[in-house]
Amino acid sequence: MQTRGVIYIHSSPSAVCPHVEWAIGRVLDGSVTVKLGWNPQSAERGTMRAERAWTGYAGMGAEFAKALAQWPMLRFEVTEDPSAGVDGERIMHVPGRGVYRAATSAGGDIMIAEDRIRALLATTTSAEALRGGLDQLLGLDWDRELEPYRQAAGGAEQSWLSQVG
To answer: Which branch of life, at top level (predicted)?
Structure first.
């Protein structure tokens, strides 16, 4: 089942950039030499940013995120569009905060599973606690930390990665 998505490396130390490309290429079974076309990240001096659209099988977005999470200093997002019988996905990583992962709708909205909402309702005792719990389920802290890096991307050029075979 083919799908597509985007890898956003919001910030990476320059020395780590070749390792990031290698990790992405490894997910693609080494069938593609990955060159991301790095640009300076104006939101964090001394780091680089890149983004790349990809096509491949359902679940590949999670594999990209797993490979990238080996470098805890990276700020990144990986998206995967929904495909037949499979929800879309958004995975974010922020240093010191770790990985946030959520299912997404066809329009890209985060979807919170019914059981997670019920658990939150069963364990919160105030409106403030409910609001904080919903913010956590929606990944608000990750979004807040990544937003300055997203804004610094401007109109960066985008090209595609595709798994061969």
So the answer is: Bacteria
Whole-number Å distance between alpha carbons of 161 and 53: 6
- Over its length of 165 residues, how does the chain's per-residue pLDDT go in tens digits? 799 999 999 999 999 999 999 999 999 887 778 999 999 999 999 999 999 999 999 999 999 999 999 999 999 999 999 998 899 999 999 999 999 999 999 888 999 999 999 999 999 999 999 999 999 999 999 999 999 999 876 555 444 455 544
Query: Whole-prediction pTM value?
Result: 0.88
Closest by CA position to 61, among listed 98, 92, 38: 92
Q: What angle do CA 102, 105, 110 make, to 5 degrees?
A: 35
Q: Which of 72, 78, 75, 73 minimizes the C-alpha distance to 27?
A: 78
Q: Are 58 and 71 in contact (CB under 8 A)?
A: no
